[in-house]
Design goal:
It is built from seven helices and 14 strands. The protein is an alpha/beta fold. The strands form five sheets. The protein has a four-stranded mixed sheet with strand order 2-1-3-4, with helices on one face. It has a four-stranded parallel sheet with strand order 6-5-7-8, with helices on one face. A hairpin with a 2-residue loop joins strand 3 and strand 4. The chain is elongated and about 75 Å long. The model has no long low-confidence stretch (mean pLDDT 91).
Length: 281
């Protein structure tokens, strides 16, 4: 990802590293910045000793050694720690005209982005923010309109059915090329079954059982996927992933003319679905 972002730069980015000359971390940072410069000549860097050039350090409001200042696209980004993740995110912030927003639908007892428990999505929120997105809650029961700045709307495990006004808001959003991610636990659909059917996606009231998971020491209810379809989303994604409590999702026999269905991943030949499974039995 860092390589792709750096190779796509259309303007120069200058990086200033504020290190003492004897700081051993200076050479490590130099090696990292050289890697960035290798992939794009749009990147230049220099090191400044704050003790030798205090006026420059004061100008950039440097308070700690090891601070990096990135300048480009008419903007400035300051990071306190030199690492690939922080540098790439800073470059992204310089290049983007405005920060995109990912919304999570609320009001239906679904996953909570502010919940730090094991079923909460606080970790997911933090990971998304590191990719330079804003993460916000959205309650369509209050105002059934999805904001124009929505890069994606996520409906995560709704326990109560969505209202007809909310479903209509989703349709309007998709009609203007919006992006929607729906995450559904087995045996619950949040009132979205017919909505998905209208877009060529069929869901069943079932849960996937995969005996192959035992080979990896996982539960039968945690199917493993190691083979993926060829797609931009799965490009270079050559790792095995486990999907706890998953369900079958399949294309309908007939799909709308305006819809393209792409299956990205499938469980192993050792898997099947149960329709009358009950948790705790």
């Amino acid at each position: 990802q860092s390589q792709k972002i750096v190779k796509s730069l259309t303007d120069d980015i200058n990086i200033k590293g504020f290190y003492q000359e004897a700081d051993p971390n200076r050479d490590k940072t130099r090696d990292l910045l050289e890697t960035y410069r290798y992939y794009s000549k749009k990147i230049a860097y220099e090191f400044i000793d704050p003790d030798r050039q205090p006026s420059l350090a004061k100008h950039y409001q440097i308070r700690t050694y090891g601070t990096l200042v990135l300048e480009g696209f008419g903007k400035t980004q300051t990071i306190a720690t030199a690492g690939e993740e922080s540098i790439t995110n800073a470059i992204l912030k310089l290049t983007q005209e405005q920060q995109r927003v990912i919304y999570f639908l609320t009001g239906h007892g679904g996953r909570d982005i502010n919940d730090f428990d094991k079923d909460g999505y606080s970790t997911a929120k933090s990971a998304i923010e590191k990719e330079n997105f804003q993460v916000k809650n959205l309650n369509l029961l209050v105002d059934p309109k999805i904001p124009e700045d929505a890069a994606l709307l996520i409906v995560a495990n709704p326990k109560k059915d969505l209202m007809s006004t909310e479903l209509e808001a989703l349709r309007q959003y998709l009609g203007r090329n919006g992006r929607l991610m729906i995450l559904l636990e087995p045996f619950a659909d949040g009132g979205l079954a017919d909505f998905l059917q209208s877009y060529g996606v069929k869901i069943s009231s079932d849960i996937i059982v995969d005996t192959m998971s035992r080979v990896f020491g996982a539960s039968y209810l945690m199917p493993v996927i190691s083979e993926y379809a060829f797609h931009k989303i799965t490009e270079g994604f050559n790792v095995a992933c486990f999907f706890p409590t998953a369900r079958i999702i399949a294309p309908t026999e007939e799909t709308p003319a305006s819809v393209d269905i792409t299956e990205l991943a499938s469980t192993s030949a050792y898997s099947w679905s149960e329709t009358d499974f009950r948790f705790g039995q």
